[in-house]
């Protein structure tokens, strides 16, 4: 088998409105029903992943409005003419919570917005070719976008609560300007 290494495209953006929306997002997330997950693969104190999609997600209305220009940056970065939001959800991790190695199926891009990240426990990635783990020096207010097939996880959390909003995107109808190459 002949394997060619292709660099992955990861985009990190600072959400400039972060300080203005942090408290509102946390308050709206606090209003969501408590839904804990505790399996061998994941232990998450609170998330709406398993709450029916019909449930009103007020935090989502605020979040989706704020990230629109950042999604436009994602669209431009990936040369996409259109982006399609597949889904979004929040997760809150407390002491020893984790989410084991996984990928996001049935979509092209995954995104993580860090609302609370005092412990610097950002997403850990795994390179299947080099067999190495790596992470980025992310902080509260950062949005990371990566191909959904990248293996990643949330390591065991410390006592400081970590809150994220994740979402998946698809894109279609790309435009590549080859004259610049």
Strand order of the largest sheet: 1-10-7-12-5-4
The portion of residues assigned to helices is 10-25%
CATH classification, class level: Mainly Beta
Q: Poorly predicted ranges (pLDDT <50, ≥5 residues)? A: none
Number of strands: 12
Count of all domains: 1
Number of helices: 2
Global Rg: 17 Å
CATH-level-4 superfamily name:
q2cbj1_9rhob like domain
In CATH, the architecture is Sandwich
**What portion of the residues fall into strands of 2 or more residues?**
35-45%
**What form results from the Cα inertia axes?**
globular
Structural class by SSE content: alpha+beta
- Main sheet attributes: strand count, strand direction, barrel closure: 6 strands, antiparallel
User: Might you state the CATH topology name?
Assistant: Jelly Rolls
Task: Give the CA-CA distance, first to last residue.
Answer: 30 Å
Q: What is the helix/strand order?
A: EHEEEHEEEEEEEE
Mean pLDDT across every amino acid position = 91
